[in-house]
Amino acid sequence: MLTLQMIQLMDILWKQEGLDLRMTPYGCLSTGDRTGLIEVVLHSDTIANIQLNKSNMAATAAFNKDALLNWLKSKNPGEALDRAIEEFTLSCAGYCVATYVLGIGDRHSDNIMIRENGQLFHIDFGHFLGNFKTKFGINRERVPFILTYDFVHVIQQGKTNNSEKFERFRGYCERAYTILRRHGLLFLHLFALMRAAGLPELSCSKDIQYLKGDPGGSSPGDAGATPHSSRSPLEGAESTQRGGGEAGGGPPWQARPQCSPVLPQDSLALGKTEEEALKHFRVKFNEALRESWKTKVNWLAHNVSKDNRQ
């Protein structure tokens, strides 16, 4: 739910800058302990279902680069296809940036969906801030974010030489990332405040270092806001919670798991200039595309173990 709220905030910030990335921050309402309501996104399907229904074998479905484009063609005949591809391009850019900045894990093909109008969106945000799942000690999240060649195939309208469309997509990603950096301190403060909620993957200041990197570093003015104090918002929240514990015998959230063993990633690159941060993001962008075959291997294993064919 917290992740959905952060994605909704990102969508608001982007729209304020005139960038509508056609996000789908579906509604989620907590109604009690481990219970709640989730909005149903109509006329949508998972990537796993789309790939499996377009392939004869589950083992090869993840490598069928035409499956997504053909599915969109079947749902958007004629001129409607161009608009659907534009919706896909915009939303894919938004979720690439959002999932990278928030360090969202467990991105298998049943956790990414597409609406019939072309909008791509992610679901099931059980792991964030770089708390990625492992199997036999091996990190299952091997790329900064999900950008596979079948996504690129859709963005390029099925044409291998359509670099103009792809560069426009890259531009959307870079602009979206730059806008979030300008509001970097806002995200740090919000996550610091939410430490009191007792979330297993947001239990101490080290968890928030996924966004900020070096805990001793300061956020420069170009990162989006001029700091009013040399103290980090992470330090402020930590000292406030310690004070509450000493005064009142300890709040309920003190009995929480130890800090998650996550190394600082500096996803917002707040300690860098805007030019340096863009260079940092471009490296991650290229890595996501270059190493996307690892995502496909993960999806293959997922498809074989959970054949959702309808």
From TrEMBL:
Residues 1-240 form the PI3K/PI4K catalytic domain. Residues 242-251 have a biased composition (Gly residues). GO terms for cellular component: cytoplasm; phosphatidylinositol 3-kinase complex; plasma membrane. One of its GO terms (molecular function) is ATP binding. The keyword Iron does not apply. It comes from the Eukaryota. InterPro entries: Kinase-like_dom_sf (IPR011009), PI3/4_kinase (IPR015433), PI3/4_kinase_cat_dom (IPR000403), PI3/4_kinase_cat_sf (IPR036940), PI3/4_kinase_CS (IPR018936). Keywords: ATP-binding, Kinase, Nucleotide-binding, Transferase. GO terms for biological process: cell migration; phosphatidylinositol 3-kinase/protein kinase B signal transduction; phosphatidylinositol-mediated signaling. Residues 213-267 are annotated as: Disordered. Pfam families: PI3_PI4_kinase. This is PI3K/PI4K catalytic domain-containing protein. It comes from Cnephaeus nilssonii (Northern bat).
